[in-house]
């Protein structure tokens, strides 16, 4: 690692001030610290949010489940509130990485990093969540903007994510065996006002799949998902899988997710 200074503010106000002055925010550190060890990142100052208690916690607000940005994956997976309201979200959190990653990684860190194969972005997008920051509220459709890119401005911090509770939902992923990231992950949600389908691992970031949404909006069944021919256009092709293989996986994972949502 390179030389850097380390700050651990105890309040959101102090954290915002440090981030606004150019400090690099440390949430769970599961990506940032690894990048620093490999000398791929060289922040002059780290701002650890671990002591900012107001950024953690899970609560029900009407028909929404609100999760603080610094809430750990393991906490989401184990939460009775999450399991009762959106079991698909608890299931997703319980399948991220390994036990150590789940103990340290945070929901805010995951969506702010926006890794193209991360799991949480698919839940945020499929459930039509709202990302609350120190400056504003951002709709899921406006938040994710491509490879490791979001709508966040310099110094803007995520404070919480509000998930509308769907009628039914499920997440299924095909794991890349070494990293446990999603080679392809599909989150389906029947929101009551329509069906949303988000795909992660396919390319430069999480995306909604319009053809699957249209088919499942007519009939929320695995057969409807199977009737959609998923195009390989725009999908990644690398040492792990070809674009055509990923396209096939999207169809298969979508069918399994719908079956899972139906119980």
TrEMBL record:
Domain FAD-binding PCMH-type: 1-168
Molecular function as annotated in GO: FAD binding; oxidoreductase activity
Gene3D superfamilies per the UniProt record, alphabetical: 3.30.465.10, CO dehydrogenase flavoprotein, C-terminal domain, Uridine Diphospho-n-acetylenolpyruvylglucosamine Reductase, domain 2
Annotated SMART domains: CO_deh_flav_C (SM01092)
InterPro entries reported in the protein's UniProt record: CO_DH_flav_C, CO_DH_flav_C_dom_sf, Diverse_Substr_Oxidored, FAD-bd_PCMH, FAD-bd_PCMH-like_sf, FAD-bd_PCMH_sub1, FAD-bd_PCMH_sub2, Mopterin_DH_FAD-bd
Entry keywords, A to Z: FAD, Flavoprotein, Oxidoreductase
Name assigned to this protein: Xanthine dehydrogenase family protein subunit M
Lineage: Bacteria, Pseudomonadati, Pseudomonadota, Betaproteobacteria, Burkholderiales
């Amino acid at each position: 690692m390179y030389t850097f200074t380390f700050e651990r503010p105890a309040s959101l106000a102090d954290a915002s001030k440090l981030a606004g002055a150019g400090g690099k925010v440390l949430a769970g550190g599961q990506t940032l610290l690894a990048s620093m060890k490999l000398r791929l990142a060289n922040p002059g100052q780290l701002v650890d949010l671990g002591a900012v208690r107001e950024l953690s916690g899970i609560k029900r607000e009407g028909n929404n489940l609100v999760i603080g940005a610094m809430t750990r994956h393991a906490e989401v997976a184990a939460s009775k509130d999450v399991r009762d309201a959106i079991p698909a979200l608890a299931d997703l959190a319980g399948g991220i990485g390994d036990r150590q990653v789940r103990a340290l990684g945070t929901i805010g860190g995951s969506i702010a990093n926006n890794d193209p194969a991360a799991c949480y972005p698919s839940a945020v997008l499929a459930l039509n969540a709202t990302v609350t920051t120190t400056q504003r509220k951002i709709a899921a459709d406006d938040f994710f903007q491509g490879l490791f890119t979001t709508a966040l401005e310099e110094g803007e911090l995520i404070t919480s994510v509000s998930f509308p509770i769907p009628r039914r939902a499920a997440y299924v992923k095909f794991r890349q065996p070494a990293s446990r990231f999603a080679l392809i992950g599909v989150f389906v949600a029947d929101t009551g006002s329509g069906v949303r389908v988000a795909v992660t691992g396919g390319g430069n970031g999480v995306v909604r799949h319009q053809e699957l949404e249209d088919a499942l909006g007519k009939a929320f069944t695995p057969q409807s998902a199977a009737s959609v021919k998923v195009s390989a256009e725009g999908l990644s092709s690398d040492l792990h899988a070809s674009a055509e293989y990923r396209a096939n996986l999207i169809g298969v994972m979508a069918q399994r997710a719908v079956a899972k949502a139906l119980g």
